[in-house]
């Protein structure tokens, strides 16, 4: 079957074939402009057109040169007089039919194109509606709306926008507090739980592990952008209590959600950057709730067996950014080694520092200085030796 841009009706499998056709650029552009106009002026589902838009924008991200068709699509969307009304109409629906719209808008944000600025402005002005989608009944709507806000925060973080997101976050956290109980957390973070098929954990709440991770990332970003406004209300959120009434530490809860190495490293790096770049008032609060670079790293070591070999594997792996994190973290220890020692004793007892020296720091040095190590680790070696000179 010949797929034509002028008489196009699509299925999921035919989109890639459509983009690879020899149809002229002019014909493709005409189709895009007509499809955008049809989308904006007719209150139809039009999920197929949005799927094509998604494919165009996704394809453009993998091209080294400028993609004129993607630029045409963004310009057509941004300059259409019905953009605001269409956006509100799409966001007013909490059902699965809004998923292609959310996916397309995520692509728009990820494009980083100047032509997308008017679209970002409209999305930002309706962020209250996007945040309401976090309480939708369809799991993909919840996931994609959380991702959209997370990505908007990374590129469009005006104070007014951040305050609206903060209000939406506070409302959603209160919703979680009403419905998400400790045993639900245990179900969500169980090692044998799969996210491939969504399984509800409780009534009146659509949530999974990925949703909570997105929520945590949004919270960390807001703490960095609005530290004075955001941590005050966060301070009122208590730690979850286990069912035997023993308090479960926040680092343990966080690592239960960020259970694989890549996610765990990303989380620690985000907390480290937040802690080192903000004022003392935020430090005091993070110390109080037990979420600091030191508590996170030491919990991470404890959960992974307190073995230097694990750190070596992470240092030579291309699958995580552990090297970038570890270099900055060691510098953080150097800036105040007493704080590191204090946290180590607090978590592991009086023998904590000596355990860390014998099991982690000393075993790292011969490996990092060996001829077979894959890169120059002189900076790491210097910082580890400096820390050892203080701890021993």
TrEMBL record:
Superkingdom field: Eukaryota
Residue stretches making up the Protein Lines N-terminal domain: 277-344
A Pfam match: LINES_N
Name this polypeptide is given: Protein Lines N-terminal domain-containing protein
């Amino acid at each position: 079957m010949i797929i034509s841009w002028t008489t196009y009706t699509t299925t999921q499998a035919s989109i890639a074939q459509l983009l690879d056709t020899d149809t002229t650029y002019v014909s493709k552009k005409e189709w895009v402009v007509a499809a955008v106009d049809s989308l904006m002026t007719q209150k139809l589902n039009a999920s197929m057109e949005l799927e094509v838009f998604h494919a165009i924008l996704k394809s453009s991200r993998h091209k080294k040169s400028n993609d004129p068709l993607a630029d045409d699509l963004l310009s057509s969307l941004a300059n259409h007089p019905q953009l605001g009304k269409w956006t509100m109409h799409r966001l007013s629906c909490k059902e699965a039919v809004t998923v292609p719209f959310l996916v397309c808008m995520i692509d728009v944000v990820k494009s980083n194109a100047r032509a997308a600025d008017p679209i970002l402005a409209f999305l930002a002005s309706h962020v209250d509606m996007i945040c309401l989608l976090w309480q939708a009944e369809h799991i993909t709507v919840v996931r994609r709306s959380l991702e959209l806000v997370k990505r908007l925060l990374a590129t469009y973080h005006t104070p007014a926008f951040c305050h609206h997101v903060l209000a939406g976050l506070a409302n959603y956290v209160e919703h979680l507090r009403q419905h998400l109980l400790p045993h639900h957390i245990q179900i969500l973070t169980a090692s044998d739980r799969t996210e491939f098929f969504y399984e509800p954990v409780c009534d009146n709440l659509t949530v999974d592990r990925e949703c909570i991770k997105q929520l945590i990332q949004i919270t960390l970003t807001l703490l960095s952008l609005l530290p004075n406004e955001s941590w005050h209300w966060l301070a009122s959120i208590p730690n979850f209590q286990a069912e035997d009434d023993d308090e479960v530490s926040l680092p343990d809860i966080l690592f239960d959600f960020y259970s694989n190495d890549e996610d765990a490293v990303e989380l620690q790096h985000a907390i480290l950057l937040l802690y080192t770049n903000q004022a003392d008032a935020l430090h005091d609060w993070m110390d109080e709730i037990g979420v600091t670079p030191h508590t996170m790293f030491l919990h991470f070591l404890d959960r992974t067996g307190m073995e230097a070999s694990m750190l070596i594997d992470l240092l030579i792996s291309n699958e995580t950014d552990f090297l970038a994190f570890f270099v900055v973290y060691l510098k953080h220890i150097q800036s105040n080694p007493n704080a590191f020692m204090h946290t180590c004793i607090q978590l592991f007892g009086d023998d904590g520092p000596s355990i860390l020296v014998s099991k982690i720091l000393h075993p790292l040095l011969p490996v990092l200085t060996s001829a077979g190590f894959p890169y120059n680790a002189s900076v790491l070696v210097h910082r580890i030796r400096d820390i050892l000179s203080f701890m021993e």
